[in-house]
Design a protein that fits this description.
The chain is an alpha+beta fold. It folds into two domains: 12-322, no CATH class; 346-433, no CATH class. Helices cover 52% and strands 7% of the residues. The strands form two sheets. It has a four-stranded antiparallel β-sheet with strand order 4-3-5-6. Helix 2 (17-39) packs across helix 14 (268-282), helix 8 packs parallel to helix 15 (299-317) and helix 11 packs antiparallel against helix 12 (228-248). The radius of gyration is 25 Å and the shape is globular.
């Protein structure tokens, strides 16, 4: 019976309008995001000025000449425009995914959950027929245009959003967040200058309201959006929640991306109205796309099902990897990234590196300012894989300068969510002898909780 129901579900169709609206808005938001990045000078600050870049495990060879970095951003922006217009869509979305993801792989220092979200969302869009309706491709090729698509084409994006929200909510069900209201108890009092709300930002009850409210929001919002009777209320919460987080925290375009993404939960009539408004502004004739056709099954569509299914399964599995280890994930950061743990820790640290020639006993300390920007130093001092990678870089650098076969040690301290600062990395371990293993970090001293 279940197999029969699954087969019937795969045959169900719906209007292609929601996919067209999301394609347009996603492409436009990405253009704005890239222009904003350029305008603030972050391209130069993050990718040109640093003489050393931190790399993700397995991607140490990813790099680009400073002479070409602006060209890469331009390429990414042009492809985002192609996505919005539905122009050469398959090539445009693939190019956007590759260029955007490549930019993020250039330096691990810039990791943010919403950049990861954009890469995954763009990858999903590669395999969906988002150009079959209200797109340049559809207007020029009758083989592409279709008014209806399989329902699962939209549902797969909803499922991805559900994974993001529910995992983000589940991650908040920890002692620091629920019992100590951390790290919001550290962050919110500094927002005293916000109009209307600033005067209560140092109140303890406000910290718990935001902590418990945030967890409840993440765990329930998908269900509110799924049901028609609560959808308007749910979307109201989406707008309020994300605009409030935008006001309180410097998280860029992420709130707007999430607000736009949740429009997927509205019915086709809602998206048809959006397209009708766009038609009035642009004089595009929407009637041309209402041909009553459904996208045809093809070899690409069959492959897409498997690729999308595997992607969703990976999204379900990857965030769970931290549970294979007993240590505090926020202290060791084993399995922390790519798991939708959003704004759950305030971690400050200090790292002073010592270079030792163990044959002669000669030693000296490193001035981190000589090698890293202030932002890189802040990130490096609290993340163990950064510390190991930087130690290897320092060892190679000073060995090349003629200091002999040197060992690298670090005197490091860290504080997690308001706890007293404590020694973070074993100061007696030569870091050059360690592999940067993402799953095994015995050099981290236990958290004194």
């Amino acid at each position: 019976m279940e197999i029969r129901q699954l087969a019937q579900y795969q045959q169900q169709t719906q209007s292609a309008a929601p996919l067209a609206v999301i394609r347009i808005l996603f492409g436009l938001l990405m253009i704005i995001s890239l222009l904003r990045f350029w305008y603030h000078g972050w391209i130069e600050k993050l990718y040109i000025l640093p003489q050393f870049h931190f790399h993700y495990f397995g991607f140490s060879q990813v790099s680009i000449s400073p002479n070409y970095i602006y060209g890469l951003f331009i390429l990414c922006g042009i492809s985002a425009l192609g996505v919005a217009l539905g122009f050469k869509y398959r090539s445009a979305i693939t190019l956007f995914f590759l260029s955007f993801t490549y930019i993020e792989l250039l330096d691990k220092t810039t990791y943010l959950n919403h950049y990861y979200f954009v890469s995954v969302f763009a990858f999903l869009l590669i395999w969906l027929p988002a150009n079959c309706y209200y797109a340049y491709d559809a207007s020029k090729d009758n083989r592409v245009v279709a008014q209806y698509i399989p329902q699962w084409n939209v549902d797969i994006l909803k499922l991805f959003l559900a994974i993001v929200y529910i995992y983000a909510g589940a991650a908040k069900l920890n002692y620091d967040w629920m019992v100590n209201a951390m790290p919001l108890s550290i962050w919110l009092p500094s927002k005293f200058d916000i109009p209307f709300l600033g005067s209560i930002m140092d109140e303890r009850w406000v910290h718990y309201l935001f902590s418990w409210g945030g967890a409840l929001y993440d765990l329930s919002i998908v269900f509110l959006l799924l049901y028609r009777k609560t959808r308007i209320f749910g979307f109201f919460l989406v707008v309020v929640f994300h605009l409030l987080t935008r006001v309180l925290f410097p998280i860029g375009m992420f709130p707007y991306i999430m607000i736009v993404s949740t429009l997927l939960f509205f019915g086709p009539q809602f998206h048809q109205r959006i397209l009708a408004i766009i038609s009035k502004i642009t004089t595009i004739k929407k009637d041309h796309f209402d041909n009553g056709n459904t996208t045809q099954m093809s070899t690409f569509a069959a492959i897409s099902k498997w690729v999308l299914t595997i992607t969703i399964v990976l999204q379900l599995i990857i965030p769970l990897r931290s549970h294979l280890f007993t240590d505090n994930v926020y202290w060791t950061e084993i399995g922390y990234r790519f798991s939708w743990r959003v704004m759950l820790m305030e971690k400050t640290g200090y790292a002073n590196f010592k270079i030792v020639n163990e044959e002669t006993g000669k030693r000296f300390y490193v001035q981190n300012d000589d090698f890293l920007t202030a932002f890189q130093q802040k990130q490096m001092s609290t993340q163990p894989d950064f510390i190991i990678e930087y130690a290897h870089y320092l060892g190679n650098h000073f060995e090349a300068q003629g200091h002999g076969d040197v060992a690298v040690y670090v005197e490091s301290y860290a504080s997690l969510n308001g706890r007293p600062s404590q020694v973070y990395i074993d100061p007696n371990v030569n870091l050059r002898e360690l592999d940067n293993n993402p799953f095994y970090r015995p050099y981290i001293l236990p958290l004194n909780d």
